[in-house]
Design brief:
The complex is a heterodimer of chains A (191) and B (322). Chain A has 191 residues and is of the alpha+beta class. In chain A, 48% of the residues lie in helices and 21% in strands. Chain A is built from 6 helices and 10 strands; from the N terminus they run βββαβββααββββααα. A 5-stranded antiparallel beta sheet of chain A has the order 1-2-3-5-4, covered by helices on one side. In chain A, strands 6-8-9 form a 3-stranded antiparallel beta sheet. In chain A, a hairpin with a 2-residue loop joins β4 and β5. In chain A, α3 runs parallel beside α5 and α4 crosses α6. Chain A starts with a strand and ends with a helix. In chain B, α1 packs parallel to α2, α3 packs across α9 and α6 runs antiparallel to α7. A 5-stranded mixed beta sheet of chain B has the order 3-2-1-4-5, with helices on both faces. A 5-stranded mixed beta sheet of chain B has the order 8-7-6-11-12, sandwiched between helices. The longest helix of chain B has 27 residues. Chain B has 2 domains: 144 residues, ATPase, nucleotide binding domain (Nucleotidyltransferase, domain 5, 2-Layer Sandwich), CATH 3.30.420; 154 residues, 2-Layer Sandwich (Nucleotidyltransferase, domain 5), CATH 3.30.420.40. Chain B contains 9 helices and 12 strands. In chain B, a hairpin with a 2-residue loop joins β7 and β8. Chain B is an alpha/beta fold and 322 residues long. Chains A and B meet through α1 of A and β8, α7 and α8 of B.
Chain lengths: 191, 322
């Protein structure tokens, strides 16, 4: 088993073809709160990964959920940030459109959390995902992704336009969300 | 040396100060204390209006030579209080014939911390009656990484305290009572993305007192609310990669909150800074000091642009002094 990532909330280990995501304990908070949060969030994350899959969004297959751990399929592909093109950005738009159509919001969309494997784009890390169909939630979700386009990719305007095209194809009412994104941008938050 | 006169009065505390680059030369404070209940905006403004003359005079008398500019809290805050203080600041600036500088109250809390602690580029947790924000500097702005979706943590504590007949301000009483607790009672923990919410928690805590001992509820309230604040602060630290956390605002006096933030920072191997008490709650020195930074960077607020803004956001200010 090999540790491959460590974030504020969880550590990720790879065991063969299985990813093990473990929510770590925080000693600053009471054990009662710590246990409840970690258990509930682990369960919610696993549920939302499966739910996204049912909406037609490629996600890792959940193998097991125990206490504070999720065991899931390892998506052994390239992060979108290494392979992005307008064509793939449009495809990402379609995938996020499907996710939003299903009433889900990812909560942490970056080009590192979208993985290209076998011609498909997989969404990973649903740690901050939640159920919400409001324009604001969808708008923030996309705005955060566009910011990673802007900060790390050349020709981000073309990528954003391509994304919008794909997004509009799979989400009815996508125009409204895209309008909200410009409004959110002007507020200068969510960096 | 630059000498700046600062005037603060966004809520309950009216405070004037004169600072230079290194220290507070003079400071005078008059605190509004409600006879019963919480802060009444109109009464607080009346308090400020009746004391502002003596507060300004006293401060000038203690150190008012060669003042270069007058800074004041332009917002956020209670409208009537802000207007009273802004009126006095305009009058003083015209009388002394020096520029006026409107400053953002939240940023003043950060800058006084950068002045009076070793913190240089921190993630700031700013917790007071009306405000609860996690902020950090990035590319010309103090960005708000997380904030309350409804009421400030101090307000939530006060509302709860009032409902169980504890005197205002409720925070210190809740902290005292929490020490006698014997168990934790589950209360709603609300973190949405990077934001938190306290109104539901306050109501649930009120309900819980019908079935549980008050110290247990106080303890559970603090543990739940502070865990939310520390969690979002930690996320902002992880996201920005910054190596320091600064605590600001009146609720920062709470020792349990400090302990929790301290543990989080220790576990992440980063520094944790708390300014001394006089610079934590609302104070004139922080307004004067931010005024000083802005004055030296060329900011001026002509009278026609000096209208107060009760919803003045820190991320609206272009930061040219860093």
């Amino acid at each position: 088993m090999e540790m491959i990532a460590s974030g504020a909330e969880a550590v990720i280990a790879l065991d063969g073809t299985t990813i093990i995501k473990t929510r770590v304990s925080k000693r600053y908070r009471l054990k009662e709160i710590d246990d409840t949060l970690r258990r509930e969030r682990t369960r919610t994350e696993a549920r939302l990964i499966s739910e996204a899959r049912r909406c037609g969004v490629p996600t890792p297959i959940i193998k097991d959920v125990t206490g504070f751990e999720i065991m899931m399929e390892y998506i052994d592909g390239d992060p979108l940030k290494n392979v992005i093109t307008p064509v793939l950005s449009e495809q990402a738009g379609e995938v996020i459109g499907k996710l939003h159509s299903g009433g889900l919001v990812h909560g942490d969309l970056t080009t590192s959390n979208i993985i290209f494997m076998n011609g498909k784009l997989f969404l990973i890390d649903f740690g901050l995902a939640y159920i919400d169909s409001t324009l604001e939630a969808r708008g923030v979700d996309i705005h955060v992704l566009f910011q990673t386009f802007e900060s790390t990719h050349e020709g981000h305007e073309e990528l954003i336009e391509a994304f919008k095209k794909g997004y509009s194809r799979t989400l009815p009412g996508a125009d409204e969300v895209i309008k909200r994104v410009s409004e959110i941008e002007s507020r200068g938050r969510y960096t | 040396m630059t000498m700046i006169f600062g005037l603060e009065g966004t809520a309950w505390n009216l405070s004037a100060a004169i600072v230079d680059e290194n220290e507070v030369i003079a400071e005078t404070t008059a605190t509004y204390r409600p006879a019963s209940g919480g802060i009444h905006p109109r009464e607080a403004a009346q308090h400020h209006a009746s004391h502002i003359g003596e507060v300004v005079r006293e401060t000038i008398k203690k150190g008012g030579r060669n003042i270069d500019a007058v800074a004041f809290s332009q917002g956020p805050g209670l409208g009537p209080c802000l207007r009273t203080v802004a009126t006095a600041a305009r009058a003083l600036s015209l009388t002394l014939n020096v520029p006026l500088i409107g400053v953002n109250h939240c940023i003043a809390h950060i800058e006084v911390g950068r002045w009076k602690t070793p913190a240089r580029d921190p993630v700031t947790l700013y917790v007071s009656g009306a405000n609860s924000q996690v902020m950090a500097y990035r590319a010309g702005y103090y960005r708000v990484f997380g904030e309350t979706l409804d009421i400030g943590i101090g307000n939530a504590l006060d509302k709860f305290a009032r409902s169980v007949n504890l005197p205002h301000p409720g925070g210190p009483r809740v902290e005292e009572l929490a020490k006698q607790a014997s168990q934790y009672i589950p209360l709603p923990y609300t973190v949405k993305g990077m934001d938190f919410s306290f109104s539901g928690l306050s109501t649930a805590a009120q309900e819980a007192t019908k079935k549980h001992a008050l110290p247990d509820v106080c303890h559970s309230f603090q543990e739940t609310a502070f865990a939310m604040l520390v969690e979002v602060t930690e996320r902002a630290v992880a996201h920005t990669g910054k190596k320091e956390v600064l605590l600001a605002g009146g609720v920062g006096a709470n020792m349990r909150l400090r302990q929790m933030l301290g543990m989080m920072c220790e576990d992440r191997g980063i520094e944790f800074y708390v300014p001394e008490k006089r610079f934590m709650g609302d104070n004139g020195a922080m307004i004067a000091y931010l005024g000083l930074l802005m004055f030296k960077a060329g900011y001026r607020t002509p009278v026609f642009e000096s209208r107060v803004d009760p919803d003045f956001r820190p991320d609206e200010v272009v930061v040219k002094w860093r």
